[in-house]
Every structure is written in structure tokens, then in C-alpha cells.
Amino acid sequence: MADIDAWVWWLIGAAALGIPLVITAMPELGMLSVGAVAGAVTAGLGGGAVLQVIVFAVVSCALIAVVRPIAVRHRNQQPQLATGVEALKGKQAVVVERVDGAGGRIKLGGEIWSARALDGDATFEPGRQVDVVDIDGATAVVI
């Protein structure tokens, strides 16, 4: 084992960190893996063992300090493109059959939907435009 160069050991370490990254999806392991690749490059360029470890530590810590907060912020962000039921909220629709607190029908996105008024006392006559505020099952709640 003494005849294997240090840069090979660093690459083995990078691969060893990459395997759990794929299994667990922990981005920190990927950042440590990149640090190990930086250590391999340092070893390949002739840097001593202490310099290799310092480069590994600095690159790994820098990536964790810079990339991790960005990744966490991105992961916690709401999707910008609404799909499904969420995409229908806030859309305008046209009343097809009288809509009140008990029910009715609207034309929403080219389709006929059952609807009810958010305010139980409100009524909307055919031809009137209404706003969809929520979808309750297969019923649009309108104002």
C-alpha cells in the first residue's frame, strides 16, 4: 500500500464520500467529497501531507459555509410555478348557472365546475365574472 500515491487515496476518499451522498442525499457529503478532490489535486501537484489536509479542510468548510445556506434557502422556498388546484386559485371564472351558498356552476379555464359562494348570503347570476378563492374537493369557492 505504500506504493500508492497520496492523490489516489484522496480520490478513493472522495468516492467513499460520494456513495453515501447518493444514498442519503446529504449535500454536505458532496462538499466534503469536493474537498477530497481538492486534496488530490494538491497531492498531484506535489504538496505535502499537511498542505493536502489544510486544502481539504479549507475547501470543505468554505463550501459548507457558502453553499449550504443557499441550498437550505432554496429548499424552503415555495415553488414559483403553481400547478393543479393551486394554479386555479385567483383565476376569474364566468357564472353559467346561478351560484349561491348552496351551489351553482361556473366556467373556469374552459371547463364547467361546480361552485359555491364564499359568503353564504351572496348570489351570482349567469354571465357575471367571479374570482376563485379556493378549491374544496371538486367545488370552486368564489367571490
Number of strands: 5
Structural class: alpha+beta
Rounded mean pLDDT score: 92
Share of helix among residues?
40-55%
Low-confidence stretches: none
The arrangement of helices and strands along the chain is HHHHEEEEE
Overall body shape: rod-shaped
Strand order of the largest sheet: 1-2-3-5-4
Q: What distance separates the N and C termini?
A: 76 Å
Determine Rg (CA atoms, Å): 29 Å
Largest sheet data: 5 strands, mixed, barrel
Strand content: 15-25%
* Count of helix runs: 4
Kindly give the count of domains: 2
Could you explain how this protein is built, in words?
This is NfeD family protein. The protein is α+β, with helices and mostly antiparallel strands and 143 residues long. The protein folds into 2 domains: 6-76, no CATH class; 85-142, Beta Barrel (OB fold (Dihydrolipoamide Acetyltransferase, E2P)). The chain contains 4 helices and 5 strands. The chain has helices spanning 6-24, 27-44, 49-76, 85-88, and strands at residues 92-97, 105-108, 111-117, 129-136, 139-142. The protein has a 5-stranded mixed β-barrel with strand order 1-2-3-5-4. Strand 1 (92-97) and strand 2 (105-108) form a beta hairpin. Helix 1 (6-24) packs antiparallel against helix 2 (27-44) and helix 2 (27-44) runs antiparallel to helix 3. It is rod-shaped and about 85 Å long. It starts with 5 loop residues before the first helix and ends with a strand. 21% of the residues are buried.
